[in-house]
Amino acid sequence: MRRFFITAGFILLIVACSQKPENAFQTSEYPSIFPDYVNVTIPVNIAPLNFKLTDHFSEIYVEVRGKNKVLVSESNKYADFDKIEWETLLESNVGRAIGVNVFAKSDSGWIAFNPFSVFVKKEPIDPYLVYRLIAPGYQVWSSMGIYQRSLEDFRQTEVVTNRLFPGACMNCHSFRERDHEQMMFHLRGKNGGTFITNDSGVIKINSKPDQLYSGFQYPYWHPGGRYIAFSINKTAQAFHATKEKRIEVFDSKSDVVIYDTRDNKVITDKKLISKDWFETFPTFSPDGKYLYFCSSKATKMPADYQDVKYNLCRIEFDPATGELGTKVDTLVRVSDTDQSVTFPRISPNGKFLMFTLADYGNFSIWHKEADLYLLNLETGRYRPLEQVNSNDTESYHSWSSNSNWAVFSSRRVNGLYTMPYFAWIGNDGKAGKPFLLPQKDPNFYLNSFYSFNIPEFVDDNISLSVKEIEEAYNMEGIKVQ
Amino acid sequence: MTVRLKMWISFFKTYHRQWFLLFFSLLVIVFWQFGYPYSLFFQEPLQLFLFSRDYFFNSISTAGGLSGYLGEFFTQFYIIPFGGPVIILFWLLSLQQLFWKILKRSVPGASHFYILSFLPSIWYCTILSEEFYLLSGLISVVIALTGVLLYTAIRDFRIRSIVGLLIVLLVYFTAGGSYILFVLFTLSFEFVKRGSSIGIKGWLWSCLVLEILLAVFLPVIYRLHYDPVPVLQAYITEHFHKISTVFPFPVVLIWILIAISLPIVLYFDKKIINRGRRNTLYIIQVAFLLLVFLGGHSLFANPKAEYIKKLDYHVRHNNWEEIISLCENRLPRNAFAVNYLNLALAKTNQLGERLFHFEQIGPVGLFLPYEREQLSAMIGNETYYHIGLVNVSQQYIFEATEAMPDLRKSTRSLQRLTDVAIINGDYELANKYIQLLKKTFFYKDWAEQAEDYLYNESKINNHPDWGEKRRLRPIQDYFFSVENMDQILLALLRDHPDHKMAFEYLMSYYLVRKDIESFMKYVHLGHEMNYKYLPVAFQEAVLYVLGLKSQEAVEQSNFPIEERTKNRLYEYVDIYTRYPNAQKLLEKEFSDSFWYYYHYR
Q1: How far apart are CA B503 and CA B527, in angstroms?
Q2: What whole-number distance in Å separates Cα of residue B380 and Cα of residue B377?
Q3: pLDDT-derived band of residue A474, with 50, 70 and 90 as boundaries?
Q4: Which chain A residues are within 8 Å of B491, Cβ to Cβ?
Q5: Chain B partners of A465 at a C-beta cutoff of 8 Å?
């Protein structure tokens, strides 16, 4: 009955508000739209793909045709679909393509563009995405914070921001296997530390053990939840003079350690702490038995910054004892790539490892040539994700819990402001055309001054209260042993 | 006393309120238009007020957001000459008129305290001369006083006490922290009116208690459940001072003053008016206002900063000769001012000629290091931009934006970021900034013109500014470091051997550092610049080195040096070597020479 009323209301709305243009001039071209949703592959539970035409037209008419259903945009300025109708449309078209017809009114009359398809996959995407919003600046930041966004609609809410802690910087949020209740992030500045949420609330640890030269940096939770692997880095920045590049971020020292949350101690191993090698970006395998990381021969920095190229390595890990194996395997070698591996991330089904490959260094977000690659862990072969990559930067990425979706940050829209894209990854490792995180108003990205940093899927809404965070903030950080 | 004078006094007495209003208006206009106009011109581009629905709703969605929105709306008109003073006057007069109406309504004998009604306005006028205090704070006070006016207009105490609660909510969400003023005033008002026919009676006093509880807990609820902000910010809100963590004590003083004005007026009314000492009261009030004005001026206004803002204004408008002229009248000593002066000299091809005609303060006077704060980054970007180091300019202006104390964006930085994006051919990025600027009132035309250039290479190459910067940009890549500016400039000269500005900056850099060796090593790069004679400061430096060898070396030099400079050298050397008090003797004729700088600065 409810559906009947909704449908009836919807039809009335169409009759009242929009009339499909007649005698439109048919063109064979696809419409030029932003975000580019032409022929993309989407999950069944994604929010409406609202978009706008990039050229100026006085009016537009957009309809989406699926099995037994036609959905018409509620606005004639940009494509804006009713959320409930959109859901119904996608649900009744799983495994199929829906067609999008775009009409635009120009001075000489209506134009009908070549309809494009959107492929709907039945495999859903995780319901929330967590990211940090920060301006893509150099050394200072103004407003910034960690936010969560429902992928099934357009709601974005704060997790923690520096509006609450003026001047502070928060980064490196990470979750145990996308669990919204087990989260960690670093908060830099006065009363800073590493904040970890667990069953008893939020705790703060002083994550700079005396014997280490830096505090904990890039994290990765062990699937069991007891351990978090961290890199420790001595990082610096330099600024390029020419237009091709802006910033060079580099480590003059880096190693990997493992933090045992149960015993509040740091596990170190000579194979991960070495003067002759820079180790960074630790990642546990989904079964928890391996620790993957990137490793480069140490060089004189910043003089030889272009010679720093990271291999992809792994070492066995015993979760029961917290001990590392004796042998380090190299899966992707600099001698083969002559490039640098960053951000190894393994699909939850253990089948693939996605990584970023750039010409050198480890801060791939500032490398226009950085692209995503997929390593088949069964065959050991890797290849670029050509369907996913662009002429601009692709960098940080993570997997959905069903291993079918990857979210990655890309600078393809304007070369500076990083935006989150989602790509379908089939069981055979083939990717679909990625799509940009939809927004209610497609002008959202044009008006935004922020980059989307470290996009991570989570399984539910994070509900940290102001009181909890403030209490942790004001407590003395627990000293790591 | 003559008849004429008596007539004037009578005329003044009859229209004394109008006279005071006129005098106050003149004072405000003169203060801003002739005292601190550049402070207003400086403030205006440091915000990005957008005419868009989203911007409006985002702005008003926080406590005090409406006053913030209105503050920004009116601040954008500071760009117009006289615009700022007139707008400030409008809001100050609104404050005074509201305060006066409230006083008059609340206290029977208030007519003798008309002069006092100017006190908050005079104080706020001076507060605003401190650039971090925002117009939105003044508007916030005006909104709160409008609430007070409404509250005091309600004669029925039953309705008034209920409406009071609603006004607290309304004022908090529209005007922010000034809701405290409203609450304090209502308490004061009800205290004064107790026992009168309109005074609160019986259990309705509990409404006042509720009002206090609301005032205490509303911000707590707000921050815990709506907008997570620190405790201070939840109470005071962010629209008074650009730095949200700063307690705006001068504004809080106004809240308190307005609230306690009722019992004070009552007290003095009984003590003084009833004893017939009205003239004393008027004199005290006028004296107090003067004292407050002078005190506020000395506390908040900054004439030195006004000088730099004036230079900044002319830099933004490329009025290079005006800058030099200003510096001739008042020697710049501050690093920002010296930077702007040297840039103006360079832009008018006078850097090498007149470098030492002004007091130099070392390399920092040529290139500002980045200090992780807004001002040095914003001012510093100008030199790098004009010399062609557009990526450095971009870095500085981006950082200046991020270091804005109010955490907002600015049209000034957006324009410069657009400049650099167009020069670098990053058209999508430029378009992003242009589309935002198109939503402003005063930068729309500029943005639309810039839009016409996107993707049009030949048009950009022929643009007098963007085309020039494209030609001057570095070709070879290296890491920028302000500590090694000479290496940066040398690299720029390797890319563009005829880059006169880079050459003169490089030579000036060595000279202000007294690095004669490096100067002599690279002065030959000037051959590419087609000088008839080397710029005078460089001639002096070359002659100094040659003079140390022998007079023959000076005379037989291959450098393009004027006879006049040689003769001046001989004269200088003569005094320098013969007299123990040479510095004093040389000061008059040679303080504008490199030699004097080298020996005595």
Answers
A1: 10
A2: 5
A3: very high
A4: 241
A5: 224
Report the distance separating Cα A162 and Cα A141, nearest Å: 10
With an 8 Å Cβ cutoff, is B514 touching chain A? Answer: no
Helices (H), B317-426: 320-329, 335-347, 351-354, 374-387, 390-402, 411-423
Q: Report cis status (omega within 30 of 0) of the bond before A438.
A: no
Report CB contact under 8 Å: A158, B425.
Answer: no
pLDDT for A191 equals 87
Q: Convert the pLDDT of each residue in A320-341 to its tens digit.
A: 999 999 999 999 999 999 999 9
Task: Say how far apart CA B407 and CA B243 lie, in whole Å.
Answer: 8
- The answer to whether A190 faces chain B, any CB pair under 8 Å, is no
Q: What CA–CA distance (Å, rounded) separates B573 from B567? A: 10
**A311-318 β-sheet, strand order:** A277-284, A290-297, A311-318, A323-332
Q: How far is B434 from B449, CA to CA, in rounded Å? A: 10
Nearest-by-Cβ selection for A466 from B223, B407, B428: B223
pLDDT class for A138, splitting at 50, 70, 90?
Answer: confident
pLDDT given for residue A16 in this prediction: 45
Domain ranges of chain A: 2-121, 128-474
Instruction: Tell me the mean pLDDT in the region A418-424.
Output: 98
> Is the Cβ–Cβ distance between A160 and A464 less than 8 Å?
yes
**Angle, CA A249 vertex, CA A243 and CA A251 arms, to 5°:** 150
Task: Assign 3-class secondary structure to B487-548.
Answer: HHHHHHHHHCCCCHHHHHHHHHHHHHCCCHHHHHHHHHHHHHHCCCCCCHHHHHHHHHHHHH
The structural domains of chain B, with segments of one domain joined by +, span: 24-300, 304-472, 531-600
Answer whether B473 sits within 8 Å of A243, measured CB to CB: yes
Angle (CA) A215-A220-A222 rounded to 5° is 120
Which one, of A282, A313, A270, A275, lies nearest residue A295 by Cα?
Answer: A313
Q: Which residue has the tokens 């001990």?
A: A323
CATH topology of domain B304-472: 1.25.40
Whether B391 and B480 have beta carbons less than 8 Å apart is answered as yes
Distance CA B59, CA A329 (A): 55
Please state the φ and ψ torsions of residue A43, each to the nearest 5 degrees.
-80, 160
Which of A 283-302 lie inside 8 A of B, CB atoms?
302
Residues constituting chain B: 601
Task: Look up the CATH number of domain A2-121.
Answer: 2.60.40.1220
From residue B128, alpha-carbon distances to A57, B31, B267 in Å are 46, 11, 31
A416 and chain B in contact, CB less than 8 A: yes
Q: Do A414 and B429 touch (CB under 8 A)?
A: yes
Q: How far is B13 from chain A (nearest CA, A)?
A: 53
- Closest C-alpha to A481, from A299, A262, A243, A328: A262
Report d(CA A404, CA B263) in Å as an integer. Answer: 73
Give which of A123, A163, A131 is closest to A148, Cα–Cα.
A131
Distance CA A68, CA A349 (A): 35
User: Least CB-CB distance to B428: which of A135, A415, A467?
Assistant: A415
| Helix (H) and strand (E) counts in chain B | 33, 1
pLDDT in tens, A222-270: 999 999 999 999 999 999 998 888 999 999 999 999 999 999 999 999 9
Confidence (pLDDT) at B275: 59
**CA A128 – CA A140 distance, rounded (Å):** 29
CB contact (8 A) between residue B399 and residue A138:
yes
Residues in chain B where the model's pLDDT stays below 50: none
Q: Which CATH architecture has domain A128-474?
A: 6 Propeller (2.120)
Q: What is the mean pLDDT of residues A170-196?
A: 93
DSSP-derived secondary structure letter, A74: S
Say if CB A1 and CB A8 are below 8 A apart: no
